Amino acid sequence: MSIVKMKRVRIIAMEKDKSELMDALLRAGCVEVREPEPVSEDESWGDLLQRSTSDLSEARLQQNELKQAMSTLQRFAPQKSSLLSPRPQIGEREFLDREALKRGLCLADEINGHAEAIGQLGVREARLRAERAGLLPWENYDVPLELRGTKTVEILLGTVPNSTDFHTMAGAVAESAEASALTLLGQDGEQQYLEVLCHQSCRTEALETLRSFGFAFAQLRELTGTIRENLERLDKALADIRSEQESQQEQIRALGGRMGELKLCSDRLQQVISTESAKEKLLVADSILYLDGWVPDSEAAGLEGLLVKYDCAYELREPVEEEYPIVPVQLKNGPLTKPLNMVTEMYSLPAYDGVDPNPLMAPFFVTFFGLMMADMAYGIIMMVGGWFLLKKMHAKGTMAHIGGLGLLCGATTFLFGALTGGFFGDFIPQIAKIINPASTLTLPALFTPLDDTIAILVGSLVLGVIQIFTGMGISVVRKIQSGDFVDALFSEITWWIILAGIALAIFGIGTVAGVPVVLVVGVLMLAIGGTRNAKGFGKVTSFIGLVYNGVSGYFSDTFSYARLMALMLAGSVIAQVFNTLGAVTGNVVGFVLISLVGNTLNLVLNLLGCYVHDLRLQCLEFFGRFYKEGGKPFRPLAIQTKYVDIMKEEQ
After folding, report:
1. Helices 562-584 and 453-481: angle between axes, nearest 10 degrees
2. Can you give the pLDDT at residue 483?
3. To bridge 291 with a disulfide, which of 11, 207, 385, 493 should be the other Cys (CB 3.0-4.6 Å)?
């Protein structure tokens, strides 16, 4: 239960072994490859070593194509899957099979090919539908479109705005060009569609009159045959497109059962991306490569055993103090404290030379959460949910931490629920009264939120004082370990003496001639040690500031823990309110329905609220006293999957 000790590893190997070496490191999963940096102050190194090249761009392009294929398959052949179903398992060798990866990519190409064909057909369909929509208003024109007229008479087809009065326009044309005739073929919401027959001798006059009414020629000159024949041609082409689209979609649906292959391929491809990304952090020359990184001390021996299989030179050493800010951090915790990684990572990982807060925080976090929830039924639900995530879903990462917290916090929630007699609030007494109005059944309770509010408040503050003093104690230990005992003496230890002196003075203990000796000693230590770096009148102002900030700080920090009582009281009251509303119905069914709906809402709100307030107490009131943050997470080159679980095999 500590921060894992790291070693810096430097490897010089043959460039021809690059791919094999990186694959071996991927399977080992214990080396974080660093970004390249100058390996020597000798400028000649810069001429010898350059960044390694990789196929990262190609792998990411394949990843995008794979995502498109999965999206397409899900759209045309959706597969029902349970969110709570466990992930399939696969052996490591089978998972890293490059031929299987190629087959998965070929499947993605096949699906994307069908999707591309469907897209192209859709474009053609839209174009043909637009063409058909343009011909429909001319449907009553039964003259072949290639016929433009006779030697003396010309046929003109065109449109005018729908607001134009046809008879007025026809009269005006007849007056200006007697040897002409207008026929209204059809109209829609925007235009009127016209056939104009005019003698060659009056064509100019007819067009001038028509244009004054907004006449425009129809765009039909490239077509042949009648309008009806063209519509039939378009209908047949659209039917063929729909048939081809259905054929392409059917071929995609036939592949619907292979979504698992695509998901497995996606996980396989992610390992390629991780490896290729790590390759870009290497430095290479003509025939050698240089790798710089970090490995946990416990994995160093295994790494050495791996490296002896290659023609390479390597160095493993402890990081020097100047390197601490860049050393990656990995926390090593047991099953009871590992779930708290979720809390620590939300705040910030500790610095490499800091302290792992999880074992120190776990008892407080779990106790505080259970105190705020305090309901046996809620605790049972949380424990069942946590067990299901861990044992049935085989959850990993954050979900595993949530499952672990569910078990731990569910246990304390059940415990405090038993102490307060809460089971969905007062569900059992209320339903007993509905069944038998004379019932006086109550669950045994050591104390209740509504009747013992002050006692719960005092208990919450006592827990807060314990955590505050624990944080101060950790700070003292850390300062002494770093050789800064004076600071510990005149900071935390001085305030311990002052607070102890106040407590003794209240009970009249340790006084000499009415003077509280312990308190006076503490104040003198604060005056001398706390102002030792100030000069002149600054000592006075510094002392006043220390007293004010110390008293107000400890007072406000302690009362922050009153939220433990407030959350317990709020959850209990809300549960009882919904139970009371259900009891108004006077029947068991109505009571159960209203109570379960209300308690479900109360549970969800309390889970969120208790987690947030518990997190706040840890981060602000506890971590602030000793925590040195700023660590960056250890991210080794390792197999990481989203859809499957990997079964480790002997190399």
Report:
1. 150
2. 79
3. 11
What phi, psi does 51 have (nearest 5°)? -60, 140
Burial 472-494 (b: 16+ CB within 10 A, else e): bbbbbebbeeeeeeebbbbbbbb
pLDDT of residue 552: 64
The pTM assigned to this predicted structure is 0.77
Q: Which residues neighbour 473 within 8 Å (Cβ) at sequence distance 6 or greater? A: 492
- The type of residue at 414 is F
The confidence score (pLDDT) of residue 398 equals 83
Instruction: Tell me how far apart the alpha carbons of residues 580 and 594 are, in angstroms, rounded to a whole number.
Output: 9
Of 338, 347, 331, the closest CA to residue 405 belongs to 338
* Closest alpha carbon to 220 in 145, 159, 139: 145
End-to-end CA distance of the chain: 29
- CA-closest candidate to residue 263, choices 29, 55, 71, 56: 71
Structure tokens at 578: 């919904």
Q: What is the dihedral of CA 179, 183, 189, 191, to 10 degrees?
A: -30
pLDDT value at residue 356: 87
Q: Is 219 exposed, middle or buried (0-12, 13-18, 19+ CB in 10 A)?
A: exposed
Q: What are phi and psi of 319, to 5 degrees?
A: -70, 145
Specify the pLDDT at position 41. 47
Query: Within the chain, which residues score under 50 in pLDDT?
Result: 40-42, 537
Are 81 and 73 in contact by the 8 Å Cβ rule? The answer is: no
Residue 479 CB contacts under 8 Å (≥ 6 apart), including other chains: 485, 487, 488, 491
- Cβ burial 226-265 (10 Å sphere, 16+ → b, else e): bbeebbebbeeebeebeebbeebbebbeebeebbeebbbb
**Residue-wise over 346-378: b if at least 16 C-beta within 10 A, else e?**
ebbbbbbebbbbbbbbbebbbbbbbbbbbbbbb
Q: Could you count the other beta carbons within 10 Å of the beta carbon of residue 446? A: 10
What pLDDT score does 507 carry? Answer: 67
Indicate the helix (H) or strand (E) that contains 529. helix 517-529
Q: Which residues pair with 91 in a beta bridge?
A: 647
Which element (helix H / strand E) includes 91?
Answer: strand 89-91
d(CA 571, CA 369): 12
- For β-strands 515-516 and 511-512, DSSP reports them as antiparallel
